Structures are given as structure tokens and as C-alpha cells.
Amino acid sequence: MTVPAVLRSRWTALVVLSTAMLMTILDGSIVTVAMPAIRDDLGFSPAGLSWTMNAYLIPLGGLLLLAGRLGDLVGRRRLFLTGTAVFTAASMLAGAATTSGLLIAARFLQGVGSALASAVVLGILVTLFTDTRERGVAIGVFSFTGAAGASLGQVLGGVLTDALSWHWIFFINLPIGLAAILLALPALPRDRGLGLASGADLAGALLVTSGLTLGVYTIVKVERYGWISAHTLGLGAVSVVLLAGFVVRQARAATPLMPLRILRSRNVSGAYLVQLLTLSAMFAFQVLVALYMQEVLGYGALGTGLAMLPAAVAIGVTSLLVSARLANRFGERFVLIAGLGLLVIAMAWLTSVPVHAEYVTDLLPAFVLIAGGGLVLPSLTGLGMSSARPDDAGVASGLFTTVQQVGMALGVAVLTTLAASRTADLRADGQDAAAALTGGYRLAFGVSTGLLVGALAVALLVLRRPRPASTDAATEPAATTVKA
């Protein structure tokens, strides 16, 4: 195979991986704007409607780490294709659903497929792009996909629901999924995997999957039960015990599901903590700003999505055109700190949003400053995957993505609960609905600012500028066979 053909194959693979991730990320946000239509058509109760999201998030958060390790053992290409096929088929079932039960079951299968596919994406990416500069560009493209998908989902959901019906927010995944599979077959490298005997830690798999699944379930049900209820505290404690048992098991197992040496790197463990804090604030930002514009300012679903497009464009431009260049020149730690600084300013700006806000003066500056996310996300990805070896890149990818999902779920649960509680208190004090809602969102934005300040402190105090890679590391034998 000629060198140009190899290069084309790698970049084609990046397009495939980004397209598949775009599809799953779209699905996470596209449903939110269609939920009223789904409720009216299928007769969901208010409590039951939340399961259109929960049924997707729970298997996604619970299976990522296990799926990442399975990718190392049976082959990341095979698991990616399987997950994409499951997700695409489940999307067809969701689009064709005529009852609430069928839709919830299909959404659960979508979560399973998404976990299988997305858990190994970064593992494939870092083994394909070993050159530092090329990897920086690839991670920038991948991060852009995530930012664009989250914002595009809200716009697309409004358009499809208004122009056709809510069924099409799921049917649209069929051509995307089929195209991703057909392109992936020749583009993704065939990896043999280590074999199940090299890491078939069944006890560890049971502990981590049950612990993560129970943890995500507890988080997404906080809005109903509250933080100090017996339900939340009891299930949360069980989840912590299960995950602690998993860590103990990994320290003693002959073939651990997740080698603990992945976390020994100061930069890797620090990047995970920064990511947890940052994603908690950023995903909540997306949800809370959308609610503020609709409930306080009176924007429609489509108008809200269009109003948030500048944020997606700002993140996209910085992740695609700026982040890799700055990282190559100044290092990922510097870029991460600069991006977090911009995010702190953006979120702090929103803590003073008025009841009758003007878009250009009160919201747009924050949406432009949110461009810091285009610096933060690629840098975190590079740091979080920096210790991955060819034989465990899948589990490292799964762990990184698990932290993302837990951070997003935790941020939304905490901040929406705080906003609702503050709103109720202000209403009890006699404020009108708009003023009370605004006060609740201001509090949530203030807490988000605090989370980002905490992330910035961790980046400054814990992370270190990575040392140049040694020649020994470059010649370390790989346990996973890859064919171009």
C-alpha cells in the first residue's frame, strides 16, 4: 500500500469515527426539543416522559468502561461496527414506535449501541494517529464533532418535528448509520485483539457495570427524589461500594478489566478530574440556557437552537483551526488553562442575566466566549489518552468517555435541582414566575462558574507539561496487531 493511500485511509477513518459520534451525540440533544410532541402522541405521563432520556443514558453510562475493554479483547473495529449497527437498528425501532413502552425499549437499545461504538472511538483514533501534530488535528476534528452535534441536535430536532413528525428524529439515523458502516468496513484497521483470556475479569465486569449503571440511575432520578432522600442516599451508597469493590478487584486480579496503571499518571488522573468538573458545567450550560430562553424569554424550540448556534460555531472554529496549533507550540496544559479561563468568564457573564434580556448584549458575548470549550475539549482528550498503550487503548477510551457521561449527568442533576429549588423559594417570597425562574438560573450559572474555577485550579496545581516521549516508549512492543 502506498503512503498516500495509507494517509487517505487514516483520514477517511477519522471521518467515519466522527460521523458515527455525531449521530450518537445528535441523538442525545435532538430528543429534548421533541419531547412535548412525543408526550402528546404516545400519552406519556410526566414521570414516564423522562424515561425517553433515562432509558438511553443509563446503559450508555453503565456499559462504556466494559465496552472499552471488550474492544481491546475482541477488536475495536468489530465492536465499533457492532455498536453502530445496534444503534441504527434501534433508531428504526424508536422511529416506528407506537406505544410508550416500545419507545423506551428502543431507547435502551440505542444506549447499548452507543456505548459499544463510542467506547472504542478514541482508542481507534490514538492508535491510528501516532504523530503528535496529526493526532492534535484529529482530536480537534473529533472535538468539533461533539460540539457541533450537541447544538445541531436542537436545531434539527425543531425542524424535523415541526416539518414532519417526531418519528423522523430517529429515522434520520438510518442513512447516517448505514453510511458509517459501509465506509468503516474498508477504512478502519483490522485489529485482532488480545483475546478474552487476556482480560476476562467477570467479577470486575459485574462490579463496574452494576456500579456505574446504578450510579447513573441514581443521578438521573435526583430531580424526582431529591438529594437527601433515602432513595438517593441508599442507592448512591450501594453504587460507591460496588465501584470501590471494582477498584480493589482490579488491584488483585491477574487479568484486570482496567489496569490501574492508567490512573498513575498525574496528567491523566488530573485530566479526568478537570473533565468531570468542566463537563458538569458545560452540559448544564447548554440545558439551562435553552430553558432560560424558552421559559423566560419566550423563544421557541427552533429559535432557541438558532440562538445557540454562535456557541457551536465559536467552539468549532477554535477546535478545528486553533487548538492543535496552540498545543503544538505551547503544550496542551497551556491551551487547557487558557480555554478554562475563557469558560469562567463566559459563565460568570451569565450570572447577571436579566428577566428581559437582549440577545446581542446579554447572551451573545457569553456564547462567543464559550469558544474556550474548543480549546479545553481537545486538550483534555490528549491528556486523558496520553498513557494509553496499543493493548489497552480501548479501556482508556471507555474510561475517558465514562467520565464525560457521568460529568454531564451529574451537572444537569445538580444544577437543575438547585435552579428549581431557588425558583420555588423566590416564588414563595412573592416574585413573579419570570423573575423567580431567572433567579434560579442565575444561581445555577454561579455554581457552574464555581465548578469551572475548580477545574482551572486543578489544571494549575496538578497538571504538568508532558515530557518529550522517549525512544524506548516508541519501540515498546504492541500487544494488539493492526493491519492497514
UniProtKB/TrEMBL annotation:
<feature type="transmembrane region" description="Helical">
    <location>
        <begin position="166"/>
        <end position="188"/>
    </location>
</feature>
<feature type="transmembrane region" description="Helical">
    <location>
        <begin position="395"/>
        <end position="420"/>
    </location>
</feature>
<keyword id="KW-0472">Membrane</keyword>
<feature type="transmembrane region" description="Helical">
    <location>
        <begin position="49"/>
        <end position="67"/>
    </location>
</feature>
<dbReference type="Pfam" id="PF07690">
    <property type="entry name" value="MFS_1"/>
</dbReference>
<feature type="transmembrane region" description="Helical">
    <location>
        <begin position="137"/>
        <end position="160"/>
    </location>
</feature>
<keyword id="KW-0812">Transmembrane</keyword>
<feature type="transmembrane region" description="Helical">
    <location>
        <begin position="334"/>
        <end position="351"/>
    </location>
</feature>
<feature type="domain" description="Major facilitator superfamily (MFS) profile">
    <location>
        <begin position="13"/>
        <end position="467"/>
    </location>
</feature>
<keyword id="KW-1133">Transmembrane helix</keyword>
<dbReference type="InterPro" id="IPR020846">
    <property type="entry name" value="MFS_dom"/>
</dbReference>
<feature type="transmembrane region" description="Helical">
    <location>
        <begin position="112"/>
        <end position="130"/>
    </location>
</feature>
<dbReference type="InterPro" id="IPR011701">
    <property type="entry name" value="MFS"/>
</dbReference>
<feature type="transmembrane region" description="Helical">
    <location>
        <begin position="269"/>
        <end position="293"/>
    </location>
</feature>
<feature type="transmembrane region" description="Helical">
    <location>
        <begin position="299"/>
        <end position="322"/>
    </location>
</feature>
<feature type="transmembrane region" description="Helical">
    <location>
        <begin position="79"/>
        <end position="106"/>
    </location>
</feature>
<keyword id="KW-1003">Cell membrane</keyword>
<feature type="transmembrane region" description="Helical">
    <location>
        <begin position="440"/>
        <end position="463"/>
    </location>
</feature>
<dbReference type="InterPro" id="IPR004638">
    <property type="entry name" value="EmrB-like"/>
</dbReference>
<feature type="transmembrane region" description="Helical">
    <location>
        <begin position="363"/>
        <end position="383"/>
    </location>
</feature>
<feature type="transmembrane region" description="Helical">
    <location>
        <begin position="226"/>
        <end position="248"/>
    </location>
</feature>
<feature type="transmembrane region" description="Helical">
    <location>
        <begin position="12"/>
        <end position="37"/>
    </location>
</feature>
<dbReference type="InterPro" id="IPR036259">
    <property type="entry name" value="MFS_trans_sf"/>
</dbReference>
<keyword id="KW-0813">Transport</keyword>
<protein>
    <submittedName>
        <fullName>MFS transporter</fullName>
    </submittedName>
</protein>
<feature type="transmembrane region" description="Helical">
    <location>
        <begin position="200"/>
        <end position="220"/>
    </location>
</feature>
